[in-house]
Design goal:
Largest sheet: 5 strands, antiparallel
Distance between the termini: 55 Å
Helix content: 40-55%
Radius of gyration: 25 Å
Shape: elongated
Number of strands: 5
Oligomer: single chain
């Protein structure tokens, strides 16, 4: 499946597309993703929206005089929830894009305004000190000049830079990232890696005809 075309000059699009690809790759390697942080964020956001909607409906049906006391408290709670949501996003999540249950893996992203993909990876077993890695690479290593994301070089970069991923996907570990190859060549290589049974068969030797 070909990824949608994006603008190679939009750092936000490059970052978001790569962020979406990272959890898909890790879950395909049997990493179990925890959605606890996202669930709390959504819970705070939806609760604030529900309070605003109920307050508006009560004011519309009953009038201001009958609801002004409850509206005051609803506004206070609404701002508290939004403050908690802001703190949760910037103080707790801190750009985290994957939280896994394999060796307590945590992946965060940094430098959102630079054309370089910076990661902060923390992993470790229970009772042991966690390890921290900070791999980085330019987006051009897995986006072609037309703005298409190619998964194979991105996955090779992750498997080569992060030992935990390399152990889960040894076929890509140690191979490193590929330069700015043409998109068709990268896609062909990716399809071969996804299906190892597709190998080019050696040409059969031609039988020579004897002269009469």
């Amino acid at each position: 499946m070909t990824s949608p075309k994006i603008s190679v000059y939009s750092i936000s699009d490059l970052k978001n597309t790569t962020d979406d690809a990272l959890p898909r790759y890790l879950t395909s390697l049997k990493f179990r993703q925890s959605h606890h942080l996202a669930d709390v964020r959504l819970g705070l956001g939806y609760t604030a929206v529900i309070i605003a909607a109920v307050t508006f409906y009560a004011d519309y049906r009953l009038g201001w005089d009958a609801t002004k006391f409850w509206t005051l408290w609803a506004v206070v709670v609404y701002f508290i929830l939004n403050g908690a949501l802001t703190y949760w996003i910037w103080g707790i999540e801190k750009g985290q894009i994957f939280d896994g249950e394999v060796n307590d893996t945590s992946v965060r992203r940094g430098s959102p305004h630079k054309p370089v993909y910076n990661l902060k990876v923390q992993y470790g077993k229970a009772g042991k000190e966690s390890q921290t890695l900070t791999p980085s690479a330019p987006f051009t290593q897995w986006f072609d000049s037309d703005g298409y994301f190619v998964a194979a070089p991105f996955q090779r970069w992750l498997a080569s830079e992060i030992p935990l991923i390399g152990e889960a996907d040894p076929r890509k570990a140690g191979r490193g990232i590929v330069g700015n190859e043409p998109r068709k060549a990268l896609e062909a290589q990716a399809s071969q890696e996804m299906d190892p049974s597709t190998k080019a068969s050696a040409p059969r030797p031609r039988k020579s005809k004897k002269a009469p």
